[in-house]
Design brief:
- The complex is a heterotrimer of chains A (about 230), B (about 230) and C (about 220).
- With about 230 residues, chain A is mainly α.
- Chain A has one domain.
- Chain A contains six helices and no strands.
- In chain A, helix 3 runs antiparallel to helix 4.
- Chain B has a six-stranded mixed beta sheet with strand order 5-6-7-3-8-9, sandwiched between helices. Chain B has a three-stranded antiparallel beta sheet with strand order 2-1-4.
- In chain B, strand 1 and strand 2 form a beta hairpin.
- In chain B, helix 4 packs across helix 5.
- The longest helix of chain B is centred in the C-terminal third of the chain and has 16 residues.
- Chain C contains eight helices and no strands.
- In chain C, helix 5 crosses helix 6.
- The relative contact order of chain C is 0.14.
- The chains are: A mainly alpha (about 230), B alpha/beta (about 230), C mainly alpha (about 220).
- Chains in contact: A-B, A-C, B-C.
- Chains B and C meet through helix 4 of B and helix 1 and helix 4 of C.
């Protein structure tokens, strides 16, 4: 393991610990919701981190379509996988928070519903990658990523307007945030973001190594070793 | 669409197909391994070899249906097959025809894709392969021999200079196969370059200019005669 | 031949093939009939309730039926490797895409024309708002489903489990369009407000995704 990686990992670990401490201990208790509200410090930063990762996925996919650069494809794969994990966290923490506070597990409000659709889009992206073969897979996946991302504004818009017509309880909505809480959110976002970079780094290395092994096998086949 | 005289005669002796280090890999399987070769115009090449030798892959790479993993394909003087695809015709073991349409309907449609709107040319192509253009039967009801002949007509309808035929005689009755071979010979005499991938080398012996022997993704040797004792 | 000439020739060919085999239409018709019947067991609405949920029921049935058609029309190009004959020719990829998309649009519209009277009868529907707007919603909505559906069906051709891949890819991305269709239909049937927002959303969705499809189709067709 490179020393840079170890140092970075330690920094991330330290940050995550501090962020956890800030969320559980330092942040003031919310007036109406009580301690359950603290899950918000996981919910929101996960959403932002996931969204950033999907934006990178979109850019990497376009880059791949234009340049057919293998690194772009690996970046797209990495960010999609890690992004989906963060988005899963959003979809789990949402109901966990909603149930004790608002009495319902789920509500088809703008944010949660959009989150679910986004999750489905990127899950289908990963499934496509698994189900298509060989050299064509990165191209197909990249085109799907473009579609998926182009869809995001439509998803938000449609669901937002729908909810203005059919109002439902909005989870975590409304009201301004206490400045100290905001502070804690930002620390958590930083920690989560850097953690995402760390995981992506590992995944990147894993995928790159895997492809290098494949390339070696391919070269061996080419030289006539075996078929 | 007729090829202009200028296009055809700009360099009469220039190779019509040039492969440079052509490589095609499917994951770990190397279908073509750094194949380099030149093929001259106006000749009939019989491409032979066992299954998996890379014959079909090579033809598909020349036709532009398969992208090389590495190396280059230069067809009719161009690096982009797309630019010259109107001057080549392709045929494979599946018929590449619509089952529910008649022979003429198929030809008229495919001719249209090449910008050939003259009905007479489609009719002529069908007659040239020895079939009846008036036949209303859908292609699904043809015998294999008829189907392969109709597929050949489809590959010819736009009068291409370069013909790529992948196992055109599979499961075809001997009489039809011999007729097709004769037709190919006549077309070669008329200046066309023809590649025929086949397992039946002896069928092509009367007309082939050269036999290209492939093995494990490479061209092993090229001979002008069939080796004595080769029955297949 | 110009690109539009080839599109028309390919479209005519597809319509002729469909007329002779009736593969897509028969499967679609039977399937959506089944869906209508099953829905009527699953939901047993009064006339008033019908109007509220009819949009959802109808568009769900059409969506599932459309998937059947979408798979069939590309399957036709795989038989006898006919697609290779097209790819080898100088004909442009987008002409093929448009001819397939328009063909699918025709088939699904025929299905809608046949099934809608059935829905009206089974659920005792009557539009309280301007019924002609339903036509607009139908055209825009069907195109939204068909244009993306044709594209993803072409992608699914190159995957394992082809038939399941298409709905898997199509449904999440179509969510905004589906919402728009369903809501607009509900609003028009109930005569409750204006469907303008949804119709505009559908229009913009159609333009954006048709552009994306046309830009990327050639890449997908030749990927291998």
């Amino acid at each position: 393991m490179k020393p840079g990686f170890v140092i970075f990992a330690l920094i991330v670990f330290a940050l995550l610990s501090y962020a956890l401490y800030a969320a559980l201990v330092l942040a003031p208790t919310e007036l109406t919701m009580g301690d359950v509200q603290r899950i918000f410090y996981y919910h929101l930063p996960s959403a932002w981190t996931g969204m950033l990762l999907f934006i990178v996925n979109f850019v990497a996919s376009i880059w791949y379509l234009i340049k057919r650069n293998a690194k772009a494809d690996i970046l797209a794969l990495t960010t999609a996988e890690v992004g989906l994990v963060f988005w899963t966290v959003v979809l789990i923490t949402g109901p966990l928070w909603a149930r004790p506070v608002w009495g319902i597990w789920w509500t088809w409000d703008a944010r949660l519903t959009s989150s679910l659709v986004l999750w489905l889009i990127y899950a289908s992206y990963l499934i496509l990658r698994r189900f298509s073969a060989g050299t064509q897979m990165p191209v197909l996946a990249a085109t799907l990523a473009v579609f998926g991302f182009a869809d995001v504004p439509f998803v938000y818009l449609a669901i937002w307007f729908f909810r203005t017509q059919h109002p439902q309880p909005v989870i975590g909505g409304g009201g301004s945030l206490d400045p100290y809480m905001w502070h804690v959110v930002l620390w958590n976002w930083l920690a989560f973001g850097l953690f995402a970079v760390l995981v992506c780094w590992v995944r990147w290395r894993l995928e790159t190594t895997k492809r290098q092994v494949e390339a070696l096998h391919a070269t061996a086949a080419l030289e006539g070793g075996y078929r | 669409m007729n090829v202009s005289a200028a296009e055809k005669n700009s360099n009469p002796g220039a190779p019509v197909v040039v492969l440079s280090n052509l490589t095609k890999q499917f994951g770990r399987f190397a279908a073509l391994r750094k194949v380099s070769a030149e093929f001259l115009p106006g000749r009939l090449y019989a491409v032979l070899g066992e299954n998996g030798a890379g014959k079909s892959t090579m033809l598909r790479a020349i036709a532009g249906l398969a992208q090389p993993t590495d190396g280059q394909v230069r067809v009719l003087g161009s690096d982009r097959v797309r630019d010259v695809c109107h001057r080549l015709g392709y045929m494979a073991h599946p018929s590449l025809l619509y089952d529910e349409m008649s022979g003429l309907e198929n030809l008229l449609y495919f001719a249209g894709l090449y910008g050939v709107h003259d009905r007479q040319r489609s009719v002529a192509a069908i007659e040239r392969v020895g079939l009846d253009p008036e036949l209303l039967r859908p292609v699904s009801q043809y015998s294999q021999g008829m189907r392969q002949r109709m597929s050949l007509a489809r590959a010819l309808v736009h009068d291409p200079e370069l013909l790529l035929l992948d196992e055109p005689f599979s499961n075809v009755d001997v009489a039809s196969a011999r007729e097709m071979v004769q037709l190919l010979g006549k077309m070669r005499d008329g200046g066309k370059t023809i590649f025929v991938v086949t397992h039946q080398a002896s069928l092509l012996a009367p007309v082939a200019d050269e036999f290209v022997w492939m093995h494990a993704g490479t061209i092993e040797k090229r001979t002008s005669h069939l080796e004595p004792g080769v029955t297949q | 031949m110009s690109e539009s000439g080839i599109t028309l020739a390919a479209l005519r060919k597809d319509l002729r093939l469909e007329w002779r085999s009736k593969d897509a239409i028969n499967s679609m018709l039977f399937f959506s009939l089944l869906v209508v019947v099953i829905f009527s067991f699953a939901f047993n609405p009064t006339a008033e309730e019908s109007r509220i949920i009819a949009g959802g029921l109808i568009w769900t049935a059409f969506l599932f039926a459309a998937v059947v058609a979408l798979n069939q029309t590309w399957a036709r190009e795989l038989r006898n490797q006919v697609l290779d004959a097209y790819r080898v020719s100088p004909a442009p990829a987008n002409a093929l895409f448009l001819s397939k998309a328009i063909g699918n649009f025709v088939f699904v519209t025929v299905l809608e024309a046949l099934m809608t009277p059935l829905f009206i009868v089974f659920y005792n529907l009557r539009a309280l708002g301007p019924a002609y707007l339903l036509l607009v919603v139908s055209v825009l909505g069907t195109w939204a489903l068909v244009v993306n559906g044709t594209f993803f069906a072409a992608i699914s051709l190159r995957t394992r489990s082809r038939e399941i891949m298409l709905p898997l890819l199509l449904f999440p991305i179509s969510v905004p369009a589906l919402m728009a269709m369903v809501e607009a239909t509900r609003i028009i049937l109930m005569g409750d407000g204006s469907p303008k927002f949804w119709i505009v959303l559908l229009g913009v969705y159609d333009v954006v995704f048709t552009t994306v499809c046309l830009t990327l189709f050639e890449t997908v067709l030749n990927a291998e």
